[in-house]
């Protein structure tokens, strides 16, 4: 009698920020007289100041000639209006639940999930994944502890964070937009090669980065003797800022 094997994967995100920050401030004398005062002043072609009253507040930026990022292995420069120097790390789950449908020993099954990360004025971040392979309470599909390709008829559970063409067209490379610097780590950046080790670092940014959109590609293969039932896999994504 055919056995129906169903699977899905769920996700959670945890942010961990560990930092010790020390700032030194330099103050300049505020230009003023008995009849006026400039609360902020710049000798420049651009500025960024707040104007407000009881009924409105606005931020003004005037005269910026260049906006963008310039970087090398040893430095990076952000050009444009003045922004806060407070570090921040943000994320979003863009697609949190992957549904595999029915597993079959004659064909690989794939699905995807995606999330976004950005960090500002820090030295970067790392992304880890923690969780178990698909399980039906009594049986767990074997995780691919070494990176490898899809093998039909052999139990496999693996992921990567790039665009794949085999066993199916699935996934996408990290999307850094205009100012992102996020990348998949070595074990998860090779197309058509999958791996899953709970606790692995799967992505990182080596420096302050704009938004990077990551797509996780999931692969499942089952064998002819894999027990039937509903399989569930829960993963937690941990994003840690490095300061």
Mind summarizing the main beta sheet? 6 strands, mixed
Sequence of secondary-structure elements: EEEEEEEEEEEEEE
User: From the helix content, strand content and strand pairing, which structural class follows?
Assistant: mainly beta
- Radius of gyration from the alpha-carbon trace, in angstroms: 24 Å
Instruction: Tell me the number of strands.
Output: 14
Q: Proportion of β residues?
A: 35-45%
- Could you say which overall geometry the principal axes of the C-alpha atoms support? elongated
Our count of helices gives 0
Uncertain ranges: 11-27
Q: How confident overall, as mean pLDDT?
A: 79
**How many structural domains in the coordinates?**
2
Q: Approximately how much helix is present in the residues? A: under 10%
Task: Tell me the distance between the termini.
Answer: 57 Å
Spatial sequence of strands, sheet with the most strands: 7-1-14-9-12-11
Task: Describe the fold and architecture.
- The chain is mainly β and 243 residues long.
- The chain has 2 domains: 5-19 and 88-241, no CATH class; 24-84, no CATH class.
- It contains no helices and 14 strands.
- Strands 7-1-14-9-12-11 form a 6-stranded mixed sheet, with no helix packed on it.
- A hairpin with a 4-residue loop joins β2 and β3 (57-62).
- The radius of gyration is 24 Å and the shape is elongated.
- Mean pLDDT is 79; it is low at 11-27.
């Amino acid at each position: 009698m055919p056995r129906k094997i169903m699977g899905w994967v769920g996700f959670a995100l945890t942010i961990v920020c560990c930092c010790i920050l020390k700032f030194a401030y330099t103050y300049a004398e505020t230009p003023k007289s008995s009849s006026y005062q400039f609360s902020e002043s710049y000798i420049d072609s651009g500025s960024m100041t707040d104007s407000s009253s009881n009924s409105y507040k606005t931020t003004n930026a005037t005269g910026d000639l260049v906006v963008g990022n310039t970087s090398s292995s040893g430095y990076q420069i952000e050009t444009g209006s003045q922004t806060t120097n407070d570090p921040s790390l943000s994320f979003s789950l863009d697609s949190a639940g992957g549904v595999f449908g029915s597993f079959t020993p004659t064909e690989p099954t794939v699905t995807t999930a995606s999330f976004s990360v950005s960090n500002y004025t820090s030295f970067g971040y790392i992304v880890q994944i923690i969780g178990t392979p698909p399980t039906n309470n009594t049986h767990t599909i074997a995780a691919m502890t070494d990176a490898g390709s899809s093998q039909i008829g052999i139990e496999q559970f693996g992921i990567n964070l790039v665009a794949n063409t085999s066993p199916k067209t699935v996934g996408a490379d990290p999307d850094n937009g205009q100012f992102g610097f996020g990348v998949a780590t070595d074990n998860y950046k090779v197309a058509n090669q999958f791996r899953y080790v709970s606790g692995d670092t799967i992505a990182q940014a080596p420096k302050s980065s704009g938004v990077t959109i990551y797509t996780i590609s999931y692969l499942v293969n089952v064998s002819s003797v894999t027990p039937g039932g509903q399989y569930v896999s829960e993963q937690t994504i941990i994003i840690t800022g490095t300061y």
